[in-house]
Amino acid sequence: MDNIKLKEQVKNEFTDYLNLNKHRKTPERYAILEHIYSTKGHFDMDSLYKAMKQSSFRVSRATLYNTIELLLDCGLVVKHQFGANVSQYERAFGNENHDHLICLSCGEVKEHKNGNLFTPAQQKKLQRFKISYYSMYIYGICNKCMRSKNAEEKKNKAKVTENKSTRINKKK
User: What is the enclosing helix (H) or strand (E) of 104?
Assistant: First the structure.
């Protein structure tokens, strides 16, 4: 689905949700929705606030938090807690199913697109269940942190070896 059709569908769903729940349809709410569906990837509330502040549409933090709650409730945004105290969000529609690779050392989150996760037998069982999306969290250590850790270990081994040879030389 192209981005224009996606944005129109999402806007219509949000409008239906706001009408059904008797919430006001404000330009700020639609600007936030537009911004979220104009960018890909994860965002936190601070980055969203800064991006909205830089755009022509300035909104308060309270409006952002209230609108995110509405978007979560109507299923247009997904909330993630990757281990840190900061919640991350991403749009729920227009994303391919993907895994989240989370580094336990630096906290970086990378997305990894995957094929179909389910075996044919599992897919048959899922025919009576309409999947909207899924994601998987995979925790580990990224290459950058692993290289840094290995370099630190080599450095420490060299110090231990140096200290041993210094002690041996002092004894002689």
Answer: none
Q: Which amino acid is at 8?
A: E
pLDDT per residue as tens digits for the range 38-47: 888 888 899 9
* 123-154 per-residue burial string, b: 16 or more CB within 10 A, e: under 16: eeeeeeeeeeeeeeeeeeebeebeeeeeeeee
Distance linking the first and last C-alpha atoms of the chain: 78
Which DSSP helix (H) or strand (E) runs through 53? helix 45-54
Tens-digit pLDDT profile for residues 87-101 = 888 888 766 667 778
CB 25 within 8 A of CB 15: yes
- Residue 26, token pair as written in the block: 């404000």
114 neighbors 93 (Cβ within 8 angstroms): no
Residue 64: pLDDT band with limits 50, 70, 90: very high
Asked whether 145 and 109 are in contact (CB, 8 A), the reply is no
Q: Distance (Å, rounded) from C-alpha 105 to C-alpha 89? A: 21
Q: How many CA atoms lie within 13 A of 134 on its CB side?
A: 10
Please report, for residues 5, 77, 115, the alpha-carbon distance to residue 73 in angstroms, rounded to integers and kept in the order given.
22, 8, 28
Locus of tokens 């609108």: 67
